[in-house]
Amino acid sequence: MDRRLGWIRLTAVAAAYAIAFLAIRRVIAFEVASPWFVVVAMICFLGLAFVAQPLVMIRMPRPLRTIRAWEIDGGVYRALGVPAYGWLLRRTPLRLFNRDVYLRDGLRDTQRAGAELEAAEASHFWAAALVVPYMVHVALAERWIALLGVSLAQALINAYPVMHLRLSRHRLDRLLSRRSRQRVPATSPR
What we know:
The protein is mainly alpha-helical. It has one domain (3-181). The protein is 73% helix and 0% strand. The protein starts with a helix and ends in a 7-residue tail after the last helix.
């Protein structure tokens, strides 16, 4: 897609969000501080990030980009059910939410897929980060039901996808390193 068309598409989606917000606000009285609105806004952010991705590759903060050993050793993520969550994403229609993170052309496609995995991970990370101040606000206001609801949404919509995407990036990196080791011929001593 050319950049101009990408910007038109992004502007159209952002304008549609704004028009929908104003129209719904006119018909239904709701608070912007409502947990429902915050969850919908979080999902809308993910939609905007997806549309913006061809124009601006969203990145994880540098200190968080590296995958830690405790994330891949299997203990914590397995206890949290992340592999089962990944199976659910891959084996159900949920996989259609972002088909860009899958390999299209076999191993020739690994760099593109790796960049898409990190962009998706970053989108979920930033969506979660944007909601944290609201979570602090409702906790300080002792609105425990709202905090519970937003926390569950955070877990399902952002935390689990981030963990799954990190595991996927690790698997892709492992595949790439194994592939590069197979390409390099062993040199024999003279």
